[in-house]
Amino acid sequence: MHDSDTEREDRHARRMQSRKAVVDARIDAARSARGVLVVHTGNGKGKSSAAFGVLARALGHGMQVAVVQFIKGRRDTGEEAFFRDHPSVRWHVMGDGFTWETQDRAADIASAEAAWQVCATLLADPSIGLVVLDELCIALKMGYLDTDRVVAALQSRAPMQHVIVTGRGAPPALIDAADTVSVIEARKHAFQAGVQAMPGLEY
Question: Could you say which of 24, 41, 140, 192 would form a disulfide bridge with 170 (CB–CB 3.0 to 4.6 Å)?
């Protein structure tokens, strides 16, 4: 015997009512308003791109925002070209390129430290609503910066400031300190099939 359309609709309505009650209860329980620390990590593509999407969202709400790019050294990316001249955006490209390009650990450490000094100033500024620390995870993974010092600064930042940290290999201490962690998995990438990095998609 097949269920009638009415019975299916009734079951669906009961499931949705039950789900709504659960969601409403969670929303009602979430009463604290404060800055959130978000980490985008994993080997998949899209960690920085997701952060820049949130950057656009924050600008839409009239927030002041800032970006500090560790490791990455190129200044011809589409996101920088789009955001850099916005009056509410502070954009800092502080890297010299990925480690296989620089092949100079001392220089990489110096660049990371210089970038971190910029970060420290931004994290202490309550007028900035969102800070994106792009590829900071790699700088921590490579030992260019002390993880404990970085995590302590993130935890003592301006109370209503949101921070998004991106990059592969987020250290456990950073993951533990974060409010939200997304691990982006790699299944396929066009580069593996010999497709070069394309403007508008990769940079």
Answer: 41
| C-alpha closest to that of 123 among 165, 90, 156, 88 | 156
| pLDDT tens per residue across span 159-200 | 999 999 999 999 999 999 999 999 999 899 887 778 887 788
Q: Mind listing the pLDDT tens digit for each residue in 115-154? A: 999 999 999 999 999 999 999 999 999 999 999 999 999 9
Global pTM? 0.84
